[in-house]
Every structure is written in C-alpha cells, then in structure tokens.
Amino acid sequence: MMKSFWLTSLRRARPKSWAIATLICAGACSGHLASADDAPKQPTPAKTESQAPASEMQSLFDGKSLSGWTNPYEWGKTEVVDGEIHLTADKKFFLVTEKIFHDYEFEGEVKLPEGKSNSGFMARGQVSPNKVFGYQAEADPTDRRWSGGLYDEGRRQWLNPLWEQPEAQAAFDRDRWNRYRIRCVGNHLQFFINDVPTTDYFDPVDLSGRIGLQHHGEKGQTYRFRNLKVRNLGSHEWKPLFDGKSLDGWETVGGGTWTVVDGILQGRASSEANEPNGMLYSKHPMTDGTYRIEYRFKKGDSGFFVRSEITENKPFAKGVQCEIDNSDEVGGLYQTGGAGWLVRPLHYLETGFPKDRHAVVNRHWKQAREGLQLDKKPVVSDDDETPWNMMTVSVHGKRIVVHLNDCLAVDHVVEDLADSGVIALQLHGNQDLEVDFRKVEMLVPTSEE
C-alpha cells in the first residue's frame, strides 16, 4: 500500500519473487490454478500467470484525431496539436476512452504547464454525465511532490499519498515530459513514473473502467499528453466458495453449529453449551488470493482465517485471522497460536498519512464501521435491519490487506505467515454468538470458455 509496507521493503533485501504462489480454489473454483504477479521493477512487466496471455501494446491515440476518446462533460476544450492531445478549460474535466478496460498495462506521457497546475491519469475511471470518478495516478508538481500517488477521485480521496516517501517523490520532473506506467491486474494497482515505482496497492472497489486524462481546472492552462498505449491483460471476476445451498467444499471441527437457511450460512454458539471454538474450513489449502465475505453480525466474536492450520486440539486452528465482531478491532489481524494481536485497524495512519489527512480517513472508517457502503447506504434484508458488511482480504506473499466496506483497515506484512493453509470461519467458544454469511468469494481470472 504505502510506506509502511512496500517502499520500506524495497530498501531491504527481499526475494525477487515475493508474490508468486499456486492457488487451489475450493467449491465452485475447485481445480482452478492462479498465481499473483510480481511487482515489476523494469519497463517490461513480469510474467503473470493469473492473467490472459498478454497482447501487444496497442496505441490509444493515432496522433491525428481523438478517435476512441470522449469528453463526458459539457465543458472543456480538446484538440490535437503536433501529435499531442491538448486539454484546456476553466474548470475540471476529463477526456476518457470510449472503451472500458479490465486488466491492463497502460503507458502515457504528460507535460504540465508552467505555473499552478495539477493533472493525472484515470485508471479504471467510472463515468457519468459531467462526472468522472475512481482511481487516479496523480501528477502533482507542488512542493509536497505526490505525483504517482493514488487518489480516489470523487470518493475516498487519498489512498496512497506519497508522504515522506523520498524515492517515489523524486520520480516526477516538473520541467519535462513524464512517462507513466499503470498496471491493473485483479484488485492490484501499480503505478510507475519514469520507471520508478510509486504505488503498490490492493483495492476491491473497481475491476474495470475507462482510462482518462485530467485537466484539473486551472483557468486557461493547457495540459499536453502523448504516446498513449495499452496492453490487454485479461480480466478477473468473483467466484463463490459457498454455493448458498450446502457446506460442499467445507469441513467443520469444534463447537457451535453451521447451517444453511434460505441461502444464508448461519453460525451459532451458546455460552450455556460451554463448547470450545468452532471452525468451518476449506477442504483445500490456499496460497495467494483475494477473498470477499459478506456477513451480518449479531453478537459474539468471529473471524476469517487465512493460510492457517487446523489442529487436533483447542482452539483447533493456528494462523492469522481477520477479526469479525462489533468492536473497533474489526478487520484487525490476530495470530492464533502465535503472537496474538499483530495490528489493529488504521495502524497505517501515523506512518502513511500526514496529520491533516487523518480526519478524512477516520470519517470513512466510522462510516464503514456503521455498515455503510461507499454510497453511504446500509445493505439490509427485508426481515432484519442488521446491516450486511463486506470484508475483502488480499493475501499475497507475506502481505495481508483488509478492507471493511471498501475502507482500508489493515495493510501489513506478517513475516512468519505460512506459505499455504486453509481459509476458515470461526465461532468463538464459550459465548453467545450469532453471525450470518451470505457470500464467501474468491477473485479469479475470468475463464476464456
């Protein structure tokens, strides 16, 4: 995500292949193999087995016309001058591709005008009349030098500000053309400026969208773009690990009960039963992967385990779990049979965000804790007002990234994380517990069939 993981890790020795592993899905994905891609350090991307065969780079701009591009705004001047796209306006707008892209690698150059200016490239931008929002690779020539950071335009604001990240901050040159490379594979976003890595981030919100060029709205300023091209890398989709009908693909151990009622997986435990922890775990081990679970929590303490070992003795699991409860610790990482609490939610604020940005993140976290989605609306069932929450967990190499309702909770490296192990849902023992799950999914490459 940010300095606390990835730029710090670049300064110390690490294996060249920190995120390649085989993934064996359970349930509907049984027998499917996938692996995460290496973070490329050079202009030529590393081979990624989890994508469709890479196509050749295709030009997005013929140097003569704006064919393939569209302006969704009622304002903004767009023109082609000497093989460049020029954007001029008095208020913010974006020129975007007509085509929607999924997994891809993009390259493009931008030249900022003198004086006050700001720009960027949209990655998987979402478009509606007079509005473009979503992921943006920033072009920021101010003294803070956050060019190449990740900004969520029109939604969560800064996701990866380049605060106190000197190597990345030095990549952008105010007085020259700057070459951006944007790589989107599944929920993994990587940005490079002039071949220097600036952002390495996992985010679950958008798996597709438009490529876009930004005019930030500085009156009379003209922004220039050239050498725009893209390589298709396939696509990803969510596949269920729970079929909504049965416990096929899963095993149970310990206390509590697991039943499927009307498409909902219900986990129940009772303090009167005086039973130990209960686990519902995958029949097959997992390595790298991104998981999405939708749950509704009534009372008690639960968790989602990754790369864990099922044991014969209580608490029947050894590994790292993502906390599921109604406390402020939801989404934090706890190592059962090990160090205990590893990190709690929002641990990254002190090292990854300047003080004047904390309030925005805390506001989004409060919204997520209340069960509100990005549109600030809860998801509830007709017969129950308890909100459904979405937790997304990405496990790549030793890195675990957790989002709650699309707000980042945790981005942490667990040095002693097992190379493989089961995923599991937990019922904490010796307490009254009610938790429902209606989705347990995994992000996989889209089948070509």
Please summarize what this structure is.
The chain is mainly beta and 449 residues long. The protein contains 4 helices and 33 strands.
Structure description:
It contains four helices and 33 strands. Strand 13 and strand 14 form a beta hairpin. The longest helix is centred in the last third of the chain and has 12 residues, at 358-369. It folds into two domains: 53-234, Jelly Rolls, CATH 2.60.120.560; 238-445, Jelly Rolls, CATH 2.60.120. With 449 residues, it is mostly beta strands. Strands 18, 20, 21, 23, 28, 29, 30, 31 and 33 form a nine-stranded antiparallel beta sheet that branches. Strands 3, 5, 6, 8, 13, 14, 15 and 17 form an eight-stranded antiparallel beta sheet that branches. GO terms for molecular function: hydrolase activity. It comes from Rhodopirellula baltica SH28. This is Secreted protein containing DUF1080. Residues 35-56 are annotated as: Disordered. Residues 1-36 form the signal peptide.
List the main descriptive attributes of the protein structure presented here.
449 residues; Jelly Rolls; 2 domains; nine-stranded antiparallel beta sheet; eight-stranded antiparallel beta sheet; 6% helix; elongated; disordered N terminus
